[in-house]
Amino acid sequence: MCCVQLITVDDITAAGERVANVVVRTPLLPFPDSTPERTFWLKPENLQPVGAFKIRGAYNAVAQLPQRSRSSGVVAYSSGNHAQAVAYAAKVFGIPATIVLPDSAPAVKVDATRKHGAEVIKVPMAERESRAHQLVEQRGAMLIPPFDHPDVIAGQGTIGLEIAEDLPDVEVVLIPISGGGLASGIGTAIRARCPRARVYGVEPELAADAAESFRAGELVHWPSERRARTIADGLRAEPSDLTLAHLRAVLDGILTVSEDEIRMAMATLIKKTRTIVEPAGAVAAAAYLYRAAELPAGRTVAVVSGGNIDPDLLTAIWMQNGATGGSAW
Amino acid sequence: MCCVQLITVDDITAAGERVANVVVRTPLLPFPDSTPERTFWLKPENLQPVGAFKIRGAYNAVAQLPQRSRSSGVVAYSSGNHAQAVAYAAKVFGIPATIVLPDSAPAVKVDATRKHGAEVIKVPMAERESRAHQLVEQRGAMLIPPFDHPDVIAGQGTIGLEIAEDLPDVEVVLIPISGGGLASGIGTAIRARCPRARVYGVEPELAADAAESFRAGELVHWPSERRARTIADGLRAEPSDLTLAHLRAVLDGILTVSEDEIRMAMATLIKKTRTIVEPAGAVAAAAYLYRAAELPAGRTVAVVSGGNIDPDLLTAIWMQNGATGGSAW
User: Which long-range contacts (CB under 8 A, 24 or more apart) does B190-193 make?
Assistant: First the structure.
C-alpha cells in the first residue's frame, strides 16, 4: 500500500466542473421526523440520470479520454448501475461504448443499456472481466472500472462538495460502501471542506467485508457467495487497495445494518422523502434510523446512492413494510 | 375584474429571498425517454417539506405577518396540502396556527397537521369557512387562503424563477391548475424571464372548470360534486377572480387530461423519475406524455406539484399500472 496515491479535493473540484452540465445538482431533503439534536437530511442521488450516483464518476472518467482515443471507445463490465452510467456518459460525448454483461442479465437491464446506444456483449459470468480486457486490447478501448480508478473516485466525490456547500456545518455524513469509491470520494471532500465532521461508511451485515478490512487495516476477502446474501445487490463488490487506502484515510468508521433494517428504511424513505430507493440506497439512512447509539449526535446527512430496483421487489417491500394505512404518510 | 391587481415578477423575486432558507431548491430532472425535439424535464415539488409546492406560498404569506400580529397566529381551512404548509410555516416562525378541518378528515391528515404543532379544530364540512372567519375575528388571527392572495401567488411563482434560472431557453411550461395560484405565479415569472416560452395550465377533464372559465373569459362555476369526480383530489378547487385574471394574462391555454392518463402518468413518473407523485402532481406530465398533438414542440418542463397520496391508493395504482416486470424501469 506504500505506493497508493490518494486523490485530493482539487481533483474533486476539477471533476465538479466537468460533470456540472450532466449531473443533477441534487438538493438536501430535510427528513420530517428528525430531532433538533440529530437533524437529518438525505442526499438523493436516486434522482440522477440512470438513477444512481454512478453517472458522476463514469462521466468524469469518460470526459478525460484524450481526443485521439475517443473513437476507440470505452468498455465496462459491471452489470449494475455503473454499466448504464458509462453508456450514458459515452452517449453524451458520442463515444462508442461496449458493455460486457453476464448472459444471465435480465432483459430489462440489457434493454436499458442498449437504449443508451451501447453495444452489449453477453458472456458467461466468469468470462466478463477477461472479455472486457480482450476488448481493450483488440480495440484500444479504455476500460472504465466501477470504483478502482482515481477519476471515478473524484467524480463520486463531487457529492461531498455539494453537501459541504449546502450544509457547511454538517456534523455526521453516512455513506453506503460497496467497492468503496463513493465513500472514498465523499470522505475526501468532507475532510477538506468540513474538517470537524465525522464520516462513516455503512454496509449490510451480510456483506461487511469492507468493515472487516477497515478494522484489519488490510483487504480481507469475502467470497462472492457470502457477499451475495444481502438484498442490497448494489453493495456486493469489495474494496480494492486504492479504495481501502482512501477509506482508512478519510472515514471515522464503518457501521453495519441488518437486512430488516434495510427493508424498513426503504419503506420509510419512500414515505418520508417521496423517492424510490433501492436496497443499497437505504443503508446509510438505516444507520441513522436504527443505529443511533453507534453514532455521534448532530446535523446528519445520509447519501441515498440509487433507486434502481426491480418493480416486483419494490412491490413486495412496499406491501410488507409501507402499504398499511396505519403509519402516517 | 377592472380592479384586480396582478402580481409582478418583483413580488416573486422578493418572495424568493424570503423562502430560500425553508424551501428545497428543487432541480430539473431530465426525463429519460424524451426526444431531441421535445426534450422533457420535471420540476419535482413533491420533494418539498410537506410534500408539495404549497410551502412556498404559505411561507411567503406567513413571513410577511407584521411582528405585532404574530402572537395572534394564523388560520387556514384547507384540508389538503395547504393546511400542512401553513402549519409548517407557522412552526418555523413560532407563530400559533389553527387549522379548521372537516370532521370527516382522515386521522392521518389530522395527525400530520398536529405534528407540526398546529391546533386542529374539527367542524362539519359546511361550517369550515365560517368557523375560520370566526377565529379570525375572535383572535385577530390572519387567514392564509390556499390561493386567493397575492402573497401566496408570489410564493408559488418562485418555482418559475428557478425554472428560468436552470433552463433559460425553456420553450413550453406545463402547470397543474386547481384554484390557479400555482399557474398564476409560475406564469408571471416565466412571462417576465422567458418571454418566448409558452405556458399552459393542465386540468383533469372531470374538473375542467378553469379551462371553461379561461375560454369564457369569466368564472364559470362547476358544483363541487362535479369537480369531485376526478381522482386528483388536489385539483378540485375552482379559480377566484384574482387567479382567473392572472391566468388570462399569463397562460397560452389550458389543456385537459383523462383519468386514465393521470393514472398512467403517475406510474410512469414513479418509474422514470423515481419519485412518488400524487394524482394532481401527474397531470402536467400526462399532458406531455399523451397530449403532444395539442402542444408546441420544444424544451418542455412539467411541474410535479405534490406527492401526498394515500398509501392504499398508491398501492392500487402501482399494481395496476407499474408493477409488471415487462415495462422497463
Answer: B190/B160, B190/B163, B190/B164, B190/B250, B191/B9, B191/B250, B192/B8, B192/B9, B193/B9, B193/B160, B193/B161, B193/B164, B193/B168
